[in-house]
């Protein structure tokens, strides 16, 4: 599916070339009933995995282009750890995509459009950044609060995790 052209010297595509491809994926995806976002993960050894936004198509709020590309890379490579990989995305990653990139241990992110460009198109990326940046008074759109369970009950899953000698750390 990828159609990044290689130069005559057969060198790796530049970040701008990967971003152009991500933008083209995003535009094509609109014509395929998806959101206007596309992303590419290039693994440490140069393998290319693409993803597009399928939120409304798949009834999946987490199916942002970046998350889809990261899922494709993890499935394709058989790992949950993308250390050494680079993410190229048609638009600045939203907080969820940024957090997913951190959890995937992606090394570096390049983006084309900004959260403000996304806002101009009606998307809430900038609103959600403000939600995380602000204090409790800015959290009105979705209040988050800790409830008072006993300390033992509250940390019981972590106690079980720490006692589990066959756990897989991530
Ligand atoms: N970066 C990015 N922002 C979004 N906002 C809504 N959907 C998306 C997406 O798939 N990617």
From TrEMBL:
Gene3D superfamilies per the record?
Cytidine Deaminase, domain 2
Q: Which domain of life is it from?
A: Bacteria
SUPFAM superfamilies assigned: Cytidine deaminase-like
Which CDD domains did the record assign? nucleoside_deaminase (cd01285)
InterPro entries hit by this protein: CMP_dCMP_dom, Cytidine_deaminase-like
CMP/dCMP-type deaminase domain residues: 13-126
GO MF term list? guanine deaminase activity; guanosine deaminase activity; metal ion binding
- Pfam families (alphabetical): dCMP_cyt_deam_1
GO annotation terms (biological process): purine nucleoside catabolic process
E.C. numbers: 3.5.4.3
Keywords assigned by UniProt, alphabetized: Hydrolase, Metal-binding, Zinc
Keyword Metal-binding tagged: yes
The entry's family comment says:
Belongs to the cytidine and deoxycytidylate deaminase family.
Q: What is this protein called?
A: Guanine deaminase
Source organism of the structure: Microbacterium natoriense
């Amino acid at each position: 599916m990828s159609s990044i052209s290689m130069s005559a010297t057969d060198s790796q595509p530049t970040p701008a070339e990967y971003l152009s491809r991500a933008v083209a994926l995003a535009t094509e995806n609109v014509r395929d009933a998806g959101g206007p976002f596309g992303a590419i993960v290039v693994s440490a050894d140069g393998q290319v995995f693409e993803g597009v936004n399928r939120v409304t198509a798949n009834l999946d709020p987490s199916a942002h282009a970046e998350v889809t590309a990261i899922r494709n890379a993890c499935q394709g490579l058989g790992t949950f750890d993308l250390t050494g990989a680079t993410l190229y995305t048609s638009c600045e990653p939203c907080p969820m995509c940024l957090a997913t990139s951190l959890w995937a241990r992606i090394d570096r992110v390049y983006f084309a459009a900004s959260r403000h460009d996304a806002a101009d198109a009606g998307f809430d990326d900038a609103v959600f950044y403000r939600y995380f940046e602000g204090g409790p008074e800015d959290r009105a759109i979705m209040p988050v609060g800790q409830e008072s369970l006993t300390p033992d009950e509250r940390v019981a899953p972590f106690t079980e995790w720490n006692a589990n000698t066959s756990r897989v750390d991530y």
